[in-house]
Amino acid sequence: MKRTNISNNVIRRLPRYLRKLDDLHAKGEERISSGELGRQMGLTPSQIRQDFSCFGEFGQQGYGYNIESLSKEIGQILGTYRDYSAILVGPGHLGTALVENFKFIIDGYTFLGAFDIRPEMIGTTVGGYPIYDIATLGDFVKEHKVDIAILTVPREPAQELTDVLVDAGIRAIWNFTNVELDVGDTDTLVENIHFADSLLVLTYRLAEQDDLRAAK
Prior knowledge:
Blueprint: H1 8-26, E1 31-32, H2 34-41, H3 45-53, E2 65-66, H4 67-77, E3 84-89, H5 93-101, E4 109-116, E5 125-126, E6 129-133, H6 137-144, E7 148-151, H7 155-168, E8 172-175, E9 189-192, H8 195-215
Parallel strand pairs: 3-4, 3-7, 4-6, 7-8, 8-9
Antiparallel strand pairs: 1-2, 5-6
């Protein structure tokens, strides 16, 4: 499988392809052309073919793409079959919603549990998974060689907990804290999720619509 010089835009389209293909497969669809896939996703057929060609050749001319096969191929590319382990740091409202609605095991991740500072939460569960004392976070990450930490704590302790995770050898952080984390000169990957950014993009598009209507 090729992974050389893949642009960030292509990588960020892959989950969209996977969701669409899984939806089509759930509806009983067996194959689809690049033209039809592009129409449903708002992309050009050439863009789709170009994206897929970054990783190899998946379709057949005159036949299109086998939906189930392509879904599995993209899942492999995205690493969903590698059984990465994940923990949650901060099972508040957002963290709890993520655990209860994100199907970790189905989507190829092994969820090991959550960590909280509140005494009343320690020893309970979230989404059926145990909640541990956050004081044990570093030792747990080291012992279980955890791959991914989902960080949903308030802004104030975000960097301190990041330091603990990085020192313990965490490989990646899914960051919901709205803080730009400093992982130093390490190989730790950080994926920042800023909900406000999406809202601002939406309001930009609304403003663009309003300006176009006003100009007519």
